[in-house]
Design a protein that fits this description.
Oligomer: single chain
Strand content: under 5%
Helix content: over 70%
Radius of gyration: 44 Å
Shape: rod-shaped
Number of strands: 0
Distance between the termini: 151 Å
Length: 103
């Protein structure tokens, strides 16, 4: 009976050691998983920031494109006005020249 108790005590000790080692491995795995989770969260945050940056760039691009179109239209109108005023001035010069030219 004593031998049987010692054998069972040895088995219990062996099982406790195995449980301890398995628990250590599980804790290491949990730490690794936690680190991996943190890394995934950091990647997700970086991705969200990149998407926000791209959205802002797209918004600014549209605003800049609209501003360029407006400026080009304004330039075209101004150029037409300059051409019209120059033609008007040329006509005025011709009229004045013909009035001051002795007949």
């Amino acid at each position: 009976m004593q031998a049987e108790r010692e054998e069972l005590a040895g088995k219990v000790t062996s099982l406790q050691n195995q449980i301890y080692k398995a628990t250590e491995k599980m804790e290491q795995f949990k730490l690794l998983m936690n680190w991996n989770q943190e890394e995934i969260e950091q990647w997700a945050l970086a991705q969200r920031q990149k998407e926000e940056d791209n959205a802002a760039l797209e918004k600014y691009h549209h605003q800049d494109s609209a501003r360029v179109r407006d400026l080009l239209m304004q330039q075209e109108k101004t150029s037409k006005a300059v051409v019209a005023k120059k033609a008007e001035l040329d006509d005025e010069v011709c009229v004045c020249s013909s009035l001051h030219t002795p007949a």
